[in-house]
Amino acid sequence: MIKDPFTHQIIGLAMETHRALGPGLVEEFYHQDLVARLNKSGIEHLSKPRRDLMYRGFVADTFEADLVFERRLIPELKALRGEFAPEHFTQLLSYSKFWRICTGLLIDFGKPSLYPKRVIYTSKTGVFPDVRIPNFVTDPELARGLVRIADQCLADIAFGYRETTWTGLLSAALRAEQLPFVVNPAVSVPEVGTTSLRCFVINNQAAITVTALGHEVTAIDRACLQTYLRLLGLPWGISFHFGKSKADLKFVSAPTLKLPKSSISPADSENPQVETLQKNNLRDIPSSTSHENPPPFSPVQHRAHRIASA
């Protein structure tokens, strides 16, 4: 039972909206009706505020919550046939973290009775585990630099954001460090077609992947990165995971059996924040650049890190 008086008041107004409209309509209708009731009740709120998450001088992601009651509550409205999905909780937790409001509320108007679900966000911090750089890593200094950048992102931001946000945060950090990279490179899969890979290509030497809000880097994550390395013709990569309360990373080597190398080029992403980054002139590697002759890399002065070279 929800005992918070303000949350209970908002649920009461949402119930009035549900009784007035009934289930089965598009989400926007419920949003408009609820906003009208909030205005009539004199309850201060923001309706669909759009805000950018800035990191190191660059836009990392853009958030647009349905409603924001500053310092009090963030409701997210849905009109579902099924149950709440994991991505709904992920979305709400990201909004709660961005707005620094610990109480979130999922509201489903799609059922015969209104279904509210309160979600509490708790800020947590952590670090990536100590690892040794494997022998298959061809540029240990670059590897240490990438882990340092990911570690600094986590130290600055803390846990709680979704995968697309961490992708944007790492993109912003790489740009600030002036490391050449391609995000979501497009490759030709022999005899199949062209596709975009969910990874970064760093300085034409390695690939990294990013996942979030799970428990660890999984066997599936490592297998996917191996596929990307094979298609890109790269020798090694790192899989980073920014969990709910724990960070993880794994070094991955390219598989022994290789198919012909595919040319890479920047690809538009289905993620609006990645598209935004690309429109802001991402520092991409030209697809004509040979993997055997990467551009010169002058890493910034790195702070001492826990990783010891093998």
Protein model, in words:
The chain is built from 7 helices and 17 strands. A hairpin with a 2-residue loop joins strand 2 (50-55) and strand 3. It is of the alpha+beta class and 310 residues long. It has helices at 5-21, 27-41, 86-99, 140-157, 163-177, 219-232, 272-279; strands at 46-47, 50-55, 58-64, 67-68, 74-78, 103-108, 115-120, 132-133, 181-183, 185-189, 193-196, 200-202, 206-212, 236-242, 247-253, 265-266, 308-309.
Fraction of residues in β-strands: 15-25%
Q: Uncertain regions: pLDDT < 50 for 5+ in a row? A: 267-310
Q: Cα distance, first to last residue? A: 54 Å
* Distinct helical segment count: 7
Query: Radius of gyration, rounded?
Result: 22 Å
Percent of residues in helical segments? 25-40%
The major sheet is characterized as: 5 strands, mixed
Number of DSSP E strands: 17
- Mean pLDDT across residues: 87
The run of helices and strands is HHEEEEEHEEEHHEEEEEHEEEHE
- Based on helices, strands and strand pairing, what is the structural class? alpha+beta
Can I get a quick summary?
This protein has seven helices and 17 strands. The protein has 310 residues and is α+β, with helices and mostly antiparallel strands.
Topology at a glance:
Elements lengths: L4 H17 L5 H15 L4 E2 L2 E6 L2 E7 L2 E2 L5 E5 L7 H14 L3 E6 L6 E6 L11 E2 L6 H18 L5 H15 L3 E3 L1 E5 L3 E4 L3 E3 L3 E7 L6 H14 L3 E7 L4 E7 L11 E2 L5 H8 L28 E2 L1
Parallel strand pairs: 5-6, 8-17, 13-14
Antiparallel strand pairs: 1-4, 2-3, 6-7, 9-12, 10-11, 10-16, 12-13, 14-15
Helix pairs in contact: 1-2
